[in-house]
Amino acid sequence: MRRKLLAGQIVIIALVMLFLVPGAAAGDAACDSRVNNTFQKLLECVTVEGVREHQAALQAIADDNNGIRTSGTPGYDESVDYVVGRMKAAGYKVTVQEFQFNTFIDLGPSTLEQTAPGAAVYVEGVDYNEMDQSEPGDVTAPVTAVDVNLVPPRASTSGCEASDFAGFPAGNIALVQRGTCTFEAKAENAAAAGAAGVIIFNQGNTPAREGLIAGTVGNTYTGGVPVFEATYARGEEWAGTSGLVLHMFANVFRGEATTYNVLAESRSGDAKKVVMAGAHLDSVNEGPGIQDNGSGSAALLEVAEQMGKVKPRYRVRFAWWGAEESGLVGSTFYVNSLSQSNRNKIKLYLNFDMVGSPNHVFFIYDGDDSDGEGAGPGPTGSAHIEKAFEAYFNTVGLPFKGTDFSGRSDYGPFIAAGIPSGGLFTGAEGIKTADEVAKWGGTAGAQYDPCYHMACDTFDNVNLAALDANSDAIAFATLQFAMNIQGITGEHGKGNFNPERWGDLIIK
C-alpha cells in the first residue's frame, strides 16, 4: 500500500501539492477505482511513493543478479518481466519486442595478481579494471613494457606504432601507457605482435591522468585478447619490476546477445494517431541503475498505471527500451522496424532518462533551440512539447533550464525519423554551477549525479523532491498529449485540454 508524504516533509513537494491538490489527496482506494482523466485527478494519484515502489523492485532485481540490470543479463530479463506484469495488470496491450545486439557484460569479479617475483593481489576498481569491450580471457605470463615514458612530462606514444613491438616476446602480457592514439589501436598492435593480454596504464602527465581510465577499446576491437586498464602508479611499479609475471582473468562476455523492448499500448484512442512516452530500462555493467534509468522507468510505470482506466483521444504507447547503454540499440531497432506508414502514425515522442539526480537541475529538452547551445531544434512540433513542460513548471513555481538534444538518449532515433520529441532530464556527469545552485540548491563543482554509471547508483541515489516534481510533470504532459495534440498537428483535441488554458487547467 502506498503512503503519502506529509506536506511539510519536502519543500518542493509541499509547493507542488499547494498548486495541484488544494483539497485532500485522493486515497489509494479511490486511485485504484476511478478514471484519472483530468490533471487534478491524475496528479493526485501519481505519487513519489508509487515511483519508489517500482525503484525498490528494480533494486531487488539487481541485488539478486550480481548488482546489475544490464541488457542481455538475467537482471534485465527480470526487469522486463516486472514491467510486463505491471502493465498487463493495468489493462494495457503489452508487446515484448526481441532483438539481438553486440554487447559487453561484466559477469562478476575479475582477477589481477602478481605471481613473480613474490605475490600480490590487486584490487579491482582501485588498481585496475577490465577495459570496456575487452575480450574474456585467463592469462598468466611475463610482462613486457612497450615504449613507456615515466619521465615528466611523460609524453607517450606507447603502443601506437607496430614498430613499438619489434622484438616483443610472443605470449607475454604487453604493458602500454596511455597517450596519443586510441586504446583500440594500442590493443590491436599488441595483439598483432603476439601479446596474450594487454594492460594499458594511465599516462601520469596530469593529476586527471593518474587514476583509472574508464576507457574502451571500442566495439570494433578485433584483437581477441583481454585488455585491462590500470592506474599510473601501478603501471610505473610494474614497468620497473624485473621478472614480473602477472595473472589476469577477465570475467566478461563480449558478443551477440538477445534482449527486449517492452511496449504497452492503451486499448482505446485513435490508432492512426499515436502518442509515445519512453524510458530506457537497462543499467550499465557497473551498477544497478536505479537513478539511470530506474528513475525514468519507474516514473513512467507509475504514470501508466494511474492512466490505466483513462480513455484517451489518441492511442498512447508507453515504451521501456533495452540496450540504451549500448548505444540506443533498442529504440533504434524499434524505429527502424516500423513501416513508413506506422512511423507516420507516431505524432510525438516523450523521453524520460534520469529524472531524479541527487544534485539535480530541472532540464527540459530544447525543442526550438532557443537556448542556442548548438545542437539545433527538434522536428516541427518539438517546440510545442517544450512549451508544455515549461507551462507545467511555471505553474507550480519551479525554475527550469533548456538542454540540448545531444543524441545521448532514446529521443535520438525518433528525431532522426522526423518525429517531434521532448522530455525531461536532471543531469548526469555534468558539473553543477554556482548559478544553478542559486536556483536549485545542491553543490557547486560536483556532478549532477555523483554516482553516474557507478555501483553506488542505488535506491538511495535519488533526490525525492526532484523525482516527485518530474513524475507529476510526466503525468501532465502524457495526459495532455493523449487528449490534445493541437500544437503538434494543428487539429483541435478535447477542449478541456486546450493548450491556451494550461495554467488554469493545471491548478484547477
Secondary-structure arrangement, i.e. CATH architecture of the largest domain: 3-Layer(aba) Sandwich
Low-confidence segments, given as residue ranges, are: 1-24
CATH superfamily of the largest domain: Zn peptidases
Helical element count? 16
Biggest sheet character: 8 strands, mixed
Strand order within the widest beta sheet = 1-10-12-11-13-16-14-15
Q: Choose one word for the global shape.
A: elongated
Tell me the name of the CATH class of the largest domain.
Answer: Alpha Beta
Q: Total strand count, please?
A: 16
Helical residues, percent:
25-40%
The CATH topology assignment of the largest domain is Aminopeptidase
* Proportion of residues in extended strands: 15-25%
Tally of separate domains: 2
What class would the helix/strand composition place it in?
Answer: alpha/beta
Rg over CA atoms: 25 Å
Distance between the first and last residues' Cα: 28 Å
Mean pLDDT: 92
Question: Short description, anyone?
Answer:
The protein has 508 residues and is of the alpha/beta class. Helices cover 31% and strands 21% of the residues. The protein folds into 2 domains: 11-103 and 256-507, Aminopeptidase; 109-250, 3-Layer(bba) Sandwich (Glucose Oxidase, domain 1), CATH 3.50.30.
